[in-house]
Each structure stands twice: as structure tokens, then as C-alpha cells.
């Protein structure tokens, strides 16, 4: 005897064929992963915003603040401001953004974080150096746009991917905890 012919599309009440995931299950898993990624990006952006304020504020204080400490040394001012902002970002990313992916090797993570930030610093310094020394754009606005806008945009994507793939490589403990 042959099974009855189906006349319409399969409904959710009908089980899928063996070995095929249920349609709702894969969509739910995708939504869960998407929500987790958006939340992680929001935390990353928040930490980055705080570090950015520290970086820009300190850079401008060193270049144009009282005593003109590093008025004639924009690259040194930028290197120092990035170093301080890196410590802020390290703490925020380790203990908040990627807390679920930390490893027990804190020293390895810190070294990787520092190396990734050196790459990001190189991007920012290249933008500032090109603008300041090659193009001759030396105003406070030009220095801020080249170092704190262009360099930031180019370096942020680089940092996020590197943090995720090279620095915070521990097992995602959210899946074990059912989060």
C-alpha cells in the first residue's frame, strides 16, 4: 500500500525527515547567535567609546593643554594617549566584552592584546604622520581628524577581529551555562 499523497506544504506539526533539523530550531539558534553577537558588539563599542574619550582627551591635553607638554611632538602625545587608552580597553574587554571567552593564560592574553593594539597604534600613527608631515596639515582639527577619526575607523575593525580570533580564545562558557 502506498502512503497518502501530501497535498500541501508540511506544517510545523509534522516532524522533519530523519537527520534534518527542525526549521524553527535552526532559526532559533541563528537568532540566539545573532543576539549574542549584537550584544558583544555593543559591549565592544561601549568599551571602545570610553577608551576613545581617554585617548582623545589625553592626546589634546598633552598637545594643547596647560604647559604645552608635547606641543611639538604629536606622535609622542598620540603614543602616550593610546598606551593609557589601551589599559582602559584591556580591562573593559577582558572583564566585560569577552568575559565569556577569557582563558586562564592572562599573560598570553595581555601580550596578544598589547600586540594587537600596537597594530592599531601603527594605523593611527600612520594616518597622523601622513596628514601632519606629508600633507602639512598641522592644525588641531587636522591632527584630530587624521588620528582620532580616520585612524580609529580603520583600526577598530582590525582590533575587534584580532581580539576575537587571537586574544580572547577561550571556550565560550555561555553555551555550557545555557545562556
Automatic annotation (TrEMBL):
The keyword Ribonucleoprotein does not apply. Belongs to the GtrA family. The lineage of its organism: Bacteria, Bacillati, Actinomycetota, Actinomycetes, Micrococcales. GO terms for biological process: polysaccharide biosynthetic process. One of its GO terms (cellular component) is plasma membrane. This is GtrA/DPMS transmembrane domain-containing protein. It comes from Cellulomonas aerilata. Residues 43-168 form the GtrA/DPMS transmembrane domain. The keyword Transmembrane applies. It is found in: Membrane. Residues 1-23 are annotated as: Disordered. Keywords: Membrane, Transmembrane, Transmembrane helix. It is a multi-pass membrane protein. Its main location: membrane. The chain crosses the membrane at residues 41-59, 79-98, 110-133, 145-162.
Amino acid at each position: 500500500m502506498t502512503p497518502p499523497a501530501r497535498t500541501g506544504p508540511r506544517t510545523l506539526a509534522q516532524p522533519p525527515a530523519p537527520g534534518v533539523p527542525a526549521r524553527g530550531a535552526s532559526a532559533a539558534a541563528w537568532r540566539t547567535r545573532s543576539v549574542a553577537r549584537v550584544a558583544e558588539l555593543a559591549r565592544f563599542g561601549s568599551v571602545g567609546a570610553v577608551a576613545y574619550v581617554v585617548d582623545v582627551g589625553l592626546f589634546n591635553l598633552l598637545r594643547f593643554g596647560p604647559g604645552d607638554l608635547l606641543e611639538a611632538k604629536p606622535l609622542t602625545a598620540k603614543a602616550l594617549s593610546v598606551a593609557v587608552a589601551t589599559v582602559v580597553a584591556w580591562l573593559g574587554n577582558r572583564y566585560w566584552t569577552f568575559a565569556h571567552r577569557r582563558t586562564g593564560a592572562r599573560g598570553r592574553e595581555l601580550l596578544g592584546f598589547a600586540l594587537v593594539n600596537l597594530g592599531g597604534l601603527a594605523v593611527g600613527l600612520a594616518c597622523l604622520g601622513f596628514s601632519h608631515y606629508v600633507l602639512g596639515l598641522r592644525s588641531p582639527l587636522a591632527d584630530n581628524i587624521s588620528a582620532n577619526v580616520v585612524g580609529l575607523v580603520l583600526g577598530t575593525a582590525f582590533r575587534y577581529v584580532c581580539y576575537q580570533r587571537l586574544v580572547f580564545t577561550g571556550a565560550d562558557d555561555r553555551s555550557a551555562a545555557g545562556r
